Amino acid sequence: MRKHLKRRTFLRGALGGGIASIALPALDAMMNLEQTAFADGSSQPRRYISWFRGNGFMLDRFEPIGVGPDWQLNDHMQPLAALKDYLNVVTGTTNRAKDQITHHEGMTVFSGYSFADKGQGQGFFSNAGGPTLDAVISEVLAGQTPIPGVHLGASKAQSPADEGTTMHNLSHRGHLQPNPAITNPSAAWQALFGSFVQPKDDRELRLHILDSVKGEVSTLQSKLGTEDNVRLEAHLDSIAALEAKLSAAAPVCDLPNDPMFTNDESINNEQLTLVNELMSDLICYAFNCDLTRVATMLFLEGAAEPTLNEIVGSNSSWHEYSHNVQSWALGAPFDNGQIYMMERFAYLLTKMRDTMELDGTNLLDNSMVLMSSDASDGSVHSIRRHPMLVAGHGGGHLKYPGVHYQPEALSGNYSYGSHPGPTSGNTSDVLLAILQGFDRNASWVGEQLNGQGEGAGSGTPLADIMA
Amino acid sequence: MNLRKPLALNAVRCLSALSLFVAAPGCKGDDDPMADDDTSAGTEGGGESGDETGGDDYTPPPGGMRRLLDYQYINTIAYMFGPQAGAVAIPPADQSLYGYTAIGNSLISPSLDLVETYEASALQIADAAIANPNTLAGIVPCVKDSPDQACYTTVAQTLGHLAWRRPLTDDEVARIVEIALEAQVWGGGDFNAGLKYELVRILLSPDFIYVVETGEQDPSEPEEYWLTGPEVVTRLSLLLIGRAPSLTLLKSAEAGNYDSVESVETLARAMLNDERAPEAVSEFFAEYLALEEISAKNPASFPLYSDALVDSMVEETELLLRDVIWTQDTDFRDFIEADYTFVDERLAELYGLPAPDNAWDQVMLPAEQARAGFLSHASVLARNSHYDGNSTTRRGLYIQQRFLCYAIPPPPPDVNPNLPDPPANTQMTLRELMETVHLEVDSCAVCHTHMDPLGFTLENYDPLGAWRTHEPNGLPVDPVTEYADFGQIGSAADLAASVAMDPRLGQCIVNNMIRFGRGSLENPTRESAELQELYASFETANYRFQELLIAFVTSELFLQVGEPK
């Protein structure tokens, strides 16, 4: 019984305990025994990850130097130096979100949908307007793996000023259909692997129960209105998700152990480097075992206020640093933090590159990993020149070695803290390019344009990054 | 049933007076509502037309379904199956919308892992319920007395009725028993194997997981639907005692015993006397005050910081709340401006007070620290501070949003959100810095003038809430400020008095109570008269929180819904 106002958190999996990092599976882990050929002729499936870190970039230290195939890493991308061939970098393009609430509009870069329900009398309030790319891909791949997608995060910190679903979630299946991030590594392990390590000799009974309750769902559907029917459909999807897990044969691969780490330290004391490593490892396991082909990683949400102690020189909030001119110099906390964030992203990519598949390729060869943020220049909340970094060869779908696509060079007048320009194009072109790696017939992503031709959707894939 | 509404409505008009202990001449139901017990109140009949003839401006929020909140699920499991089962009940995480999980659980679609989480929980609960069968046997004795196949039917009918908050059809009973029989065979004929999966079947039904509130259409106001008796007692029970209603109460409601507002009031008063009520009401304050979000502080600057100290901070606030609402049953504004508080050893050290004799002692606040009530509690001060320093903005914003319901608008898109350089080589207090960067620049000041000045008055308290007269840089703190209608405020105690006297305080608490209690936002346009009436009720009841709850649950704001959403 709760004895005070401190709300309980209900943790799944083992509690407390020591920190046990998990090791990658052995080379023979991924046993695609039937040697299925996928639609693109390869023996390994394509995978997708969205990776997010809040509060934008310092464009003059991020945007690569040079364009096309001959480009060099700028300062803030140096942690990715060993992976450069796997990178396609898109800069200088415009996020065409139709409306603006600082930070919220930037989330459109992952979906092509402007946010909905602006304000609602609550100030900084909005809900996501449509599905994010990961959810669209999950839908394309429906039924091919036991788990449609896994949604993970590192920091538990949420922006104190922002309300609605837009800012607090990286993945959305639609309006008011967020896929919240799991920030507890032990719970993430449970969600991915728990049902496969437990005995399932009662599987038939449990499937029968799930089938049986659908009758009550139908009865409710007939009594309720449109909105609740959307939610009941989601409930049925959730039943189907468990049915798929129960029906799946045990994966023929080494399953990792519960990392036994719950990330329950207070905000400001979180061990985000460790959490990121555990979550990245779990994603690699899940991909390698083909339990799912889609993941999202919300490393730190936009406008959140934690102090990130693992950044050199940091003793104030990451959000405040993004707006405080005194923290922008070389070697100052916001500059250091940009490198820290990219190191965390590099950890995931490196693990993927080092995780071999049965045919001798590695996970990064077969994946597309989109990294971006809720702003281009975080200090002014700009969504002009909104950078998108797409890592991975995508099973031959993307250029390798990768290119730097940039329609126009960054203005020489720009420095961090000012509005960047010039800008053109449409960030959603990148989304459609990625989507076509999963659905070659996809011809549109995001919202439809309105009568004035405004909207963040796209029907023109960015061919420059496609193989 | 169709006679209920006019009678009920008539009673609503009276009850808002009754609940204030002011006689309302001419009203039916002037009798002492406490004279009725909760099974005999609520006589139907009368037949005289009500005073509402249709065509009013009132439109209730949509009806529909909302998912049980985490604590409601756990408490209900513990009620049905005992504490061991409650301890292993792990529901899915709730997502908040508009500040409340009650609204999130009403509007946000379930995650794809929702049913997996409920299933894992149900399997654990069923094992615990069978290993500790006394609570379940109290509801369905046959699980101990005559564990045979007929008992599966009894469990489906009786426990199903309790869990689904309605009687089951024969078909539904048959579907449940079918699972039980199949599981019994699977378990080699073991009764408990059948029982386990029967319980899982009942708990996995959407009829258990979701609370359905569709009501019955008012014949003269077609956009208004009165919650049915079972819907009313469910909504009431979840709000006031934190779990679903008992089978006895449900059956009584099905028999029509809670179709009148008088009977609802009687029941609500009985529930407020229930030992579980304070905890249930604290669930509201947990979300309203949001004190779970206290972030860690720099241990080098604040050596007293610890997780245990944070727990003590929150407990202090809980103890003051419970004292005002339950022990004293007095003006809620005392929570804002009390001259006393509760401390344990850790808080006494933080506040510079003598160590208490007991684990927790009630003490007078030290006059020289100018503290008063919750706004100078360490909990709220620490919640709205950074890792290594105060935030006058966040402290002011918290007061505006949560106690005055003033929504700070987002800045215009073209505003420069960057902090200007402070003057070089000049040491400044935080206040001076904020006056320079937030209040001298017009585009910033338009919003920050509503936040930072309130925070200035709390500058005498450091990020942990300890008293200070000087900042770490040695500069003296100046807490004197001016803000709008508050005029000059010289201290935290002045600020508390201003907030307590502000008429928006009571209205804001009412609005938040509505959001939590029914899972939807209040609507100042379509519910204007009803809201005004509830605001007035709270004021006339001298801001006693228990009376606000009574006035709320007996109002149309609580008893009606619109068309299902």
Automatic annotation (TrEMBL), chain A:
Annotated region (Disordered), positions in chain: 153-181
Output the InterPro entries linked to this UniProt entry.
Answer: DUF1552 (IPR011447), TAT_signal (IPR006311)
Q: Which domain of life is it from?
A: Bacteria
Which keywords are on file for this protein? Signal
Signal peptide position in this chain?
A: 1-28
Among its keywords, does the record have Cytoplasm? no
Q: Does the keyword Ligase apply?
A: no
What is the protein named?
Answer: Tat (Twin-arginine translocation) pathway signal sequence domain protein
Originating species: Enhygromyxa salina
TrEMBL record, chain B:
Q: Does the record bear Signal in its keywords?
A: yes
Residues in a coiled coil are none
Give every DUF1592 domain span. 228-353
Domain named DUF1595: which ranges? 151-213
Q: Where are the transmembrane segments?
A: none
| Secretion signal, residue range per the UniProt entry | 1-24
- Identify the InterPro entries for this entry: DUF1587, DUF1588, DUF1592, DUF1595
Residues in domain DUF1587?
66-131
Which residues does the UniProt record annotate as the domain DUF1588?
371-471
Q: Which Pfam families does this UniProt record tie to the protein? A: PSCyt3 (PF07627), PSD3 (PF07626), PSD4 (PF07631), PSD5 (PF07637)
Region called Disordered, residue ranges:
29-62
Q: Which UniProt keywords apply?
A: Signal
Name of protein: Cellulose-binding domain protein
Species in which this protein is naturally found: Enhygromyxa salina
Read off the lineage from the record. Answer: Bacteria, Pseudomonadati, Myxococcota, Polyangia, Nannocystales
